[in-house]
Specification:
The complex is a heterodimer of chains A (625) and B (360).
Chain A: E1 7-14, H1 25-33, E2 42-47, E3 53-60, E4 73-74, E5 80-88, H2 91-100, H3 110-121, E6 131-139, E7 144-149, E8 158-161, E9 166-169, H4 172-177, H5 187-196, E10 209-211, E11 216-221, E12 224-225, E13 229-230, H6 234-243, H7 251-266, E14 273-276, H8 281-292, E15 299-305, H9 316-325, E16 329-335, H10 337-350, H11 359-370, E17 375-377, H12 382-385, H13 391-406, H14 411-421, H15 434-437, H16 441-449, H17 463-473, H18 475-481, H19 490-517, E18 521-523, H20 529-535, H21 546-552, H22 561-564, H23 575-582, H24 590-624
Helix pairs in contact in A: 2-3, 5-17, 6-19, 6-20, 7-8, 7-20, 7-21, 8-21, 11-19, 13-16, 13-19, 16-18, 16-19, 23-24
Chain B: E1 2-8, H1 16-30, E2 35-42, E3 56-58, H2 65-79, E4 83-86, H3 92-101, E5 105-110, H4 121-129, E6 132-135, H5 138-147, E7 155-157, H6 171-177, E8 184-189, H7 201-209, E9 213-214, E10 217-224, H8 230-239, E11 246-250, H9 257-263, E12 266-269, H10 278-285, E13 290-293, H11 298-301, E14 309-311, H12 317-326, H13 332-343, H14 345-356
Parallel strand pairs in B: 1-2, 1-4, 2-3, 4-5, 5-6, 6-7, 8-10, 8-12, 10-11, 12-13, 13-14
Antiparallel strand pairs in B: 9-10
Helix pairs in contact in B: 1-14, 2-3, 3-4, 6-9, 7-12, 13-14
The chains are: A alpha+beta (625), B alpha/beta (360).
Chain lengths: 625, 360
């Protein structure tokens, strides 16, 4: 790796069908340049000789634009061409191995390693990679495209196939900006967003645009795209770990060694790596481990809100204590409601697909960028692998309590209808679904994380969209698939559910667009495939709070107990309150506030997409006159 | 090697686009090395069943619904097909049952308007069960994906192809054959069906009312095809004052069609109901420029406007037609070659063979 963060946008068009028209260069460029924020400094394109395939790439390079890392990158033999977004953290090891076998490197970039690795291992190459990535490799001889996305889905990759032509890009909006992809709606995406607050992959709001699912590869040749194939499964790894649980007395040592290894790997860069610091264990431990890994200068960014001052939700005082303990330079960035309101249109336009979250990441990324940072570590993922969420306590409890009554056919639905008829549940509509969904892990996860349940959709969507969306979404089947194979341990099941749903579709996606909007690369050492392999045997044996205690004691200088024992508040933002004020919802509960925010996001998103469409038309008109 | 059972509305000996498309697919399957034998069960009586491709056997038709079901099930059990091919959505539920019964893979062909409205639950489920859905256009595929929960990669576009007998030829003798002299000839080919008033005859009649001639050549409108809407169209032509320039040719025999296309200066079918529109290909393969509306599958047939004139919905039709008439003449040989490159028999066979790979 050249060490420069690879904040990139990639795209391509392949007219695979013999009857298809040749791709239009203007479309390739329009899609590519719609991702200018992802890579403002460099732009490249590459075309096959018959011009049936074009690749585009936008790059932000900090160190040296003249070096050979620019993309699309062609192998020396000319056979392979790659476009890549992300980081391969085990690049140095791969490079040494390849060089020993006689592969000559022309550049210092991990991009080139992908080309060599593909030439050597073909599609199996993905098993060798540790990192966050989305890439496409074109084989100019076989005339095939190979797409891959990292196991957790940290980096995005969207595809659109109309039966003639296959298109892909890092962003949904970029595909639309090309002007050739249908905007026909996808009811599953719309319903999924209403239920989860983010659009569950592989769906988007558009029928013809899909995410390449996390941990999948896809193969495209003259026949067209093949069905995406899984090569890594989070559920499988948790299941493997649960089959060989770690002895309890090894928890601390395993957590320390895995976390230190991951943090070290994620520091691979020749620019300064900062850290997002909250008052929680995850980010504090990362900071401590950065120190242990040998980083000298560390800057830590904390968000503060006037509304929270003097309340337990204010993270700044405790964060300052942690920063002081590890000798980091601490930057506290206070965000006011006025700034939020002013940034709201920018947030909406940076948001690639609607999300009810990401505002916190937007501001912390903004603060990091203001501080001149290009790369920052985030503690995202700690709650998932170390059983930090309340769901790790609630789900097993609900399931064991409700398994038997929920198995009685029709009882749950009947109970909901009766209680609802009696006026129960007007404050908390989800409570009515307890008996209907609480008996299984998939169902109780829906109860825990859903903003609303399927029967509430009639209040927000028309019956046709609801019916067809629910059918296509296959809500519970999809959840069940994310715990297949089913880990033997309850905690591992919850961990798999959280990792493959909320974290993947919401947290990681938000981190991508919110970071990219500020040209900041967010790295997540606690979302790492090696860490998962090492800790999946630990997850099942974690007693309440034990995971966080283990992480807190991972750095040589342990985190203070005041941090460890602090009740969880999350990396909070008073967004709910601000939005409630905006839409004048009085005394909004947390649930009602997020539903109001969801509506706001959808409306804004639709307006933004509409506006872009109009401006595209104007651009086209100008171009043709 | 795969054995194929084809449940079809009609195929060899059948009339019309659906039968043609079925023959094209069955012929493509027959020429595939992976296919051992194809048993074709048609629903309707054929006029002739000679010239079947190698490996293909067409059984006698069963027009009765129940007898067809019985025959299909019996054939499935005795023939033990690996693939079941079905050429129409209406038969897809039966094909799905047959395929499930013998654990065969299911291929369904979709044409166009049959999938424009929401399919019945049984039809939807049979498409969702299919291993491969051959859509004749991108539009047909998009509509199938809208109505059904399909794995998108299994819904593929295999556009219709065009018979090699449609090729450029002696245009002067073709004109003489239809008694044409110096006229500028606009041709439409299609059934005159009162229930299917989407072909757009009326649009052309209205448009030529203000366009009596072009470069001193009288503009005439040739209507090939017949049906119960003929009288009404005649009245429309009279009312528009173009009855003397509107010629009803009636049903034109298949063998005369290539010359008819060659005789025309412009083939125009401003239809809003085409799943693809093989007739555009036939006209262009004969070297005759073509015009259609950007609706349904016509965008494929006219290749986004790269092969013919594609009239956008917001453009006034009469103006578009006038532009097409007055535009520079095309080279018939070049137009035909471009059409064959995309939609000729070789391209079709190659495309079909490549999508069959998706079944493995």
């Amino acid at each position: 790796m050249d060490g420069a963060p690879d904040m990139c946008g990639l795209n391509g068009i392949y007219a695979y069908n013999v009857s298809a028209s040749l791709p239009d260069r203007r479309e390739l460029i329009a899609t590519r340049d719609a991702m200018a924020a992802r890579g403002p400094d460099g732009a490249g394109e590459w075309w096959s000789e018959d011009r049936r395939l074009g690749l585009g790439h936008r790059r932000l390079s900090i160190i040296d634009l003249s070096e050979g890392g620019s993309q699309p990158m062609t192998s020396v033999c000319g056979r392979y061409v790659v476009v890549f977004n992300g980081e391969i953290y085990n690049y140095p090891g791969i490079r040494i191995e390849l060089e020993r076998q006689g592969y000559a490197f022309q550049t210092h970039s991990d991009t080139e390693a992908l080309l060599h690795l593909y030439a050597r291992d073909g599609r199996d190459m993905v098993h060798r990679l540790r990192g966050m990535f989305a890439f496409v490799i074109w084989d100019n001889e076989a005339r095939t495209a190979f797409l891959a996305r990292d196991p957790y889905g940290i980096k995005p990759l969207y595809t659109a196939n109309d039966g003639w032509t296959f298109r892909f890009a890092s962003q949904v909006k970029a595909l639309l900006a090309g002007g050739k992809v249908s905007r026909d709606p996808e009811p599953a995406g719309i319903v999924g967003f209403q239920i989860w607050g983010s659009v569950p992959e592989p769906f988007t709001l558009y029928r013809d645009i899909r995410a390449l699912p996390a941990g999948h590869t896809q193969w495209v040749d003259e026949a067209g795209p093949r069905e995406p194939k899984p090569y890594a499964s989070i559920a499988q790894m948790f299941a493997d770990g649960a089959a060989h649980p770690a002895p309890c007395d090894e928890i601390n040592a395993r957590v320390r060694s895995a976390a230190l290894d991951s943090v070290s790997a994620h520091l691979l860069a020749d620019v300064e790596v900062g850290v997002f610091l909250s008052a929680g264990v995850d980010s504090g431990a990362l900071l401590g481990l950065m120190r242990d890994a040998g980083q000298k200068k560390i800057r830590a960014i904390t968000l503060a809100f006037q509304e929270f001052q003097g309340t337990p939700e204010d993270e700044a005082p405790l964060a300052a204590q942690i920063a002081a303990q590890y000798g980091a330079e601490h930057i506290v960035r206070t965000v006011s409601e006025a700034e939020f309101q002013a940034d709201l249109p920018l947030i909406m336009s940076a948001m690639d697909q609607p999300s009810i979250d990401g505002v916190n990441t937007w501001f912390v990324a903004k603060a990091a960028r203001e501080a001149g940072l290009k790369v920052a570590l985030s503690g995202l993922g700690g709650d998932e692998i170390l059983a930090g969420y309340p769901s790790f306590r609630d789900l097993p409890r609900w399931v064991s309590l409700l398994r038997i009554p929920a198995a009685v056919p029709g009882l749950g639905v009947a109970a909901r209808k009766v209680l609802s008829g009696l006026g129960f549940g007007s404050n908390n509509p989800k409570a009515l679904g307890l008996l209907e969904y609480g008996g299984t892990y998939a169902g109780s996860y829906l109860l825990r994380r859903g903003l609303m349940l399927p029967h509430d959709l009639r209040n927000v969507l028309d019956p046709k969209t609801t019916a067809s969306g629910l059918r296509r979404l296959g809500l519970l089947d999809r959840l069940r698939a994310s715990i297949t194979p089913m880990p033997a341990s309850a905690l591992s099941r919850v961990a798999a559910l959280e990792s493959a749903n909320y974290m993947r579709n919401q947290l990681l996606r938000d981190a991508d667009w919110a970071g990219m909007a500020h040209s900041l690369e967010i790295r997540t050492p606690l979302v790492d495939i090696n860490l998962l392999k090492a800790l999946s045997p630990v997850t099942p044996v974690l007693k309440l709070g034990a995971g966080k205690r283990a992480l807190a004691s991972a750095p040589v200088t342990k985190l203070p107990l005041t941090i460890v024992d602090r009740p969880k508040t999350g990396f909070g933002v008073p967004t709910g309150r601000w939005i409630a004020e905006l839409s004048s919802v009085p005394n909004a509960s947390k649930g009602a506030a997020s539903r109001a925010w969801a509506r706001e996001v959808v409306e804004q998103h639709v307006v933004a997409v509409d506006r872009e469409r109009k401006s595209e038309i104007v651009v086209e008109e100008v171009a043709t006159t | 090697m795969s054995r194929v059972l084809a449940l079809v509305t009609d195929a060899y000996g059948g009339q019309g686009g659906i039968a043609q498309a079925a023959r094209d697919v069955i012929g493509g399957l027959a020429s595939n090395d992976a296919v051992e034998a194809i048993d074709v069960l048609p629903r309707h009586a054929p006029h002739e069943t000679s010239n079947l491709p190698n490996k293909v056997r067409q059984h006698s038709p069963e027009s009765g619904r129940i007898s067809f079901v019985v025959k299909a099930l019996r054939s499935a059990v005795t023939k033990r097909p690996d693939w079941v091919f079905c050429n129409h959505l209406y038969m897809a539920p039966l094909a799905a049952i047959v395929a499930t019964l013998v654990r065969a893979k299911l291929i369904v062909q979709l044409h166009g308007i049959e999938i424009w409205k929401e399919p019945s639950p049984a039809q939807r489920k049979s498409l969702e069960r299919a291993n491969l859905i051959l859509c004749v256009s991108r539009d047909t595929r998009a509509r199938a994906l809208t109505h059904c929960d399909l794995t998108p990669e299994r819904a593929v576009v295999v556009n219709n192809t065009v018979d090699p007998r449609f090729a450029p030829g002696d245009r002067a003798s073709a004109r003489a054959k239809f008694g044409l002299r110096t006229e500028f000839v606009i041709l439409i080919v299609g059934r005159l069906d009162a229930k299917e008033r989407y072909k757009g005859h009326d649009l052309i009649i209205q448009a030529i009312a203000d366009l009596p001639s072009f470069e001193e050549r009288p503009v005439v409108f040739l209507i090939a095809g017949d049906g119960d809407d003929r009288k009404r169209i005649q009245h429309v032509a009279e009312a528009a004052g173009v009855a003397d320039r509107t010629v009803f040719l009636g049903l034109v025999p298949n063998s005369d069609l290539p010359d008819l296309y060659r005789a025309a200066d412009l083939f125009a079918l401003p239809s809003t109901g085409e799943g693809f529109g093989i007739v555009y290909l036939e006209a262009m393969a004969c070297g005759t420029p073509s015009l259609g509306l950007a609706a349904g599958g016509v965008s494929d047939a006219l290749a986004n406007g790269e092969l013919g004139v594609l009239v956008a919905p917001d453009v006034e039709f009469a103006l578009a037609l006038r532009d097409a008439i007055t535009s520079r003449p095309v080279d018939p040989v070049q137009l035909s070659a471009e059409v064959l490159a995309r939609y000729g028999a070789n391209s079709f066979t190659r495309r079909l063979a490549s999508v069959l790979e998706l079944m493995h």
